[in-house]
Amino acid sequence: MKKFAILIALLLKGSLPAYAAPSTVPAVSHPIVGKWQWTRSTNNCTEIYDYRADGTIFAISGAEETTSTYKIAERPNSNGFYALTSRLVKTNGAQDCSDNPPSADTAPYTIYILLHRSQTTYMVCLTPALDRCAGPLRRMPP
CB–CB of 136/39 below 8 Å? Predict the structure, then answer.
């Protein structure tokens, strides 16, 4: 995984727009905190995202392992989307699920998270709308 936005952009065959970063780091009680899993249907490759309460994400995508920082809006917008801005800190440079060459791009990027009301699944979107989304990612047991 180069970074989550690149994978999603490839899945949706779109480009990643730039957005302003949200202003808060998640608290322990933020619903995004925890481990989430998604399997890419085109190659049956699994990704796991561990959103930690300290504002870091540890992710595994195929053979690649990454650490990133993130900030997420404390509350969703009026349509239910949380803006999440992330930046890659470290990668092992191995092949990820997107089948693209490894990259170490550390530029910040923003995605939009739409949590299901059960808080057991979410969609990730390139804009705060349902037209360019992928998922669902499923919450893993603690």
Answer: no
